[in-house]
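haha ok so turns out i had the wrong file open the whole time. this is the CORRECT one, sorry everyone. sequence first:
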Amino acid sequence: MVNGSNTDVSHLPASYRHALLSLYTTVLIGGVLSMSLMIRMLKSNVCSVTATAALNLIAVHILFLLTVPFRIYYYAADSWDLGQKFCKVVSAMIHAHMYLTFVFYSIILVYRHLTSFRPRQVESIYRRLHPLWASAAVWGLVLTVVIPVMVFNYGSLDHSNATTDNQCLHFGNIFSNREITYAALNYTFSALIIIVTLALAVCQLWILGRVYRSHKGMIVGQQEFLAQIKSIYFMLVIIVCFVPYNTFRFYYVSNYNEDLEAKNEIALAFTTFCCFDMLILIGKESFRPCDSICCV
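then structure:
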């Protein structure tokens, strides 16, 4: 991709561009369908923690999906003429989408795990801290701190010639300069995602084990088990969409080269399939009229 000259910079190989085009087109179509169906289903039922977190997930997915057409345009044209600042926004948004989605997944799972351990205490906390206020705090932090920092600093240390006037989405060569701070941040974020996922999975397995010990062979038909199915689905989305990429991220940052950057783009694209998560909730009818604490 880079040969050290400003006038002779090759782009992604055609095979990678075609694969990325297929992936992002699928994500865009499926994501828009998923969001549309979920918004129609939710209507005004936002009183539960799970429903509020789902609305936040919808907002995060929509913000990301707005940038997907520009990715499709770039990989189709193999050229970028919309300015490097906007390129950084589009490039950074996929990372922001992954981290924010993981945060809201974790909130949902932690809340559901806590209700399995101490339902009365969780209900008391719920009454004191309404999830809408918590959501406002998270978005306030994101809009005033996280996004401005990402927009102004993302790719700012990119001293190589990989990003030219007609190229975009190739900021990985920052790692070729052995910038310790950026590498450390990537290691930290990836490690946190893997560690938190492992902790949540252990809790989920412990809860399932407790339910099994309580009901033995009748577990499948028990309401307590059925209530855990949605949590299991969210865990699977995290494990399938986020863990493989963040595991690969360690190797990518440590051994950066142009070929690995192309593979990183493919792996990163697979994280966006979490946009289909709302279809899971639709299929399981997660937001029935009395499926929340505020209905008690």
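The chain has eleven helices and no strands.
again sry for the mixup
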